[in-house]
Amino acid sequence: MYTGDGVVNPHVRVTRQPPSLFSLFDNPTIIMDGGVIVVTNPTVNVRLTSSISSFEVQRRFDRGITIAALKGKLEMILGASPSCMDLELFSVSDKFMQKMDNNEALLGSYPVDDDCRIHVTDRSGQMSEFTDVSKVEKFQLADEDYDKRTDSARSFKKKQRLGQFNEEEMAKKKAEIAAREEKHKAAANAISVGSRCKVQVTGQPTKLATVMYVGTADFKPGYWVGVKYDEPLGKHDGIVDGKKYFECENKYGGFVKPLSVTVGDFPEEDYGLDEM
Predict the structure, then answer these.
(1) Where does the pLDDT of residue 271 fall: very low under 50, low under 70, confident under 90, or very high at 90 and above?
(2) What is the tens place of the pLDDT at every residue in 30-77?
(3) Contact present, 13 and 44 (Cβ < 8 Å)
(4) N or C of the chain: less Cβ packing under 10 Å?
(5) SS3 category, 155
């Protein structure tokens, strides 16, 4: 129930006589001017997050406990000291609502509903030593020693002749790669710098461009065609990893495999930019 002074307490019985402490939390209704208003349960189910862990947990608490008592319960769940806890309340949609910084206030005096989130910040910093993996000494095994083990994944693959340990399969893959590269090389030899072309890459729309570069590149093995698109549909300005392959405006440049390029009479479209 909103009392008008910024405090929410869903367990207050409005009568002419002051209610007893026990009557505040043992009745699920509020009587006002002869009418009955049904209010929420005396307990609330909240989501808990913290600066200590990336995990989210759910717990149910009595609305009648104080924030100090709540922190005591959170210590058992999260491991942080109550004296170092800062609590923040978030809505069901994870929108920040307010800080829960009054240890004497009741949990039910805050606008907390089922599925709201309480975030706990640990100011002690003592838990960081358990979450900072950079401080953990790492065990490293030399490759030759690992190769001698009989209970490793590598040993299993060797026994089952899987992946790189299947000589027949690896030889077949190498032959396929070599044949594909020969096709790219032949296609690259048929493409001249300055030619108009269309670029067709699987999963992308067809783009019109001008060929600016043909050959091998440092960023990846094989043959590549550098193009300047007619529209800003590229990724760079002809410079990749600090090396300049050709020159164009930013976002107009791109590199594609030769088999994705078709050279032909593809006139550049006039988009009327000079008239704007």
Answers:
(1) low
(2) 434 444 444 558 999 999 999 888 888 999 999 999 999 999 999 998
(3) no
(4) C
(5) helix
Q: Residue 64: which of 101, 27, 34, 33 has the closest Cα? A: 27
Strands 239-240 and 223-229, how do they pair? Answer: unpaired
**Residue 19 pLDDT > 50, yes or no?**
no
| pLDDT single digits (tens) 188-231 | 999 999 999 999 998 889 999 999 999 999 999 999 999 999 99
Pull the structure tokens for residue 139.
Answer: 């065990």
DSSP helix/strand/coil, 259: helix
SS3 content of the chain, % helix, strand, coil (to 5): 25, 25, 45
The CA distance from 269 to 70, in Å, is 68
Residue among 7, 10, 9 nearest 98 (CA)? 7
Strands 43-50 and 117-122: parallel
Cβ proximity of 97 and 111 under 8 Å:
yes
Question: Measured between alpha carbons, how far apart are the two ends of the chain, in Å?
Answer: 61
Q: Which of 43, 63, 65 is nearest to 108 (CA)?
A: 63
pTM of the predicted model as reported, rounded to 2 decimal places: 0.42
Coil, helix or strand at residue 46: strand
* Better-scored residue on pLDDT, 142 or 59: 59
Give the residue carrying structure tokens 């505040």: 24
| CB-based contact 152:146 (threshold 8 Å) | yes
Distance CA 184, CA 178 (A): 10
Whole-number Å distance between alpha carbons of 229 and 212: 10
Distance of alpha carbon 179 from the chain centroid: 39
Q: Cα–Cα distance between 156 and 250 in angstroms, integer?
A: 49
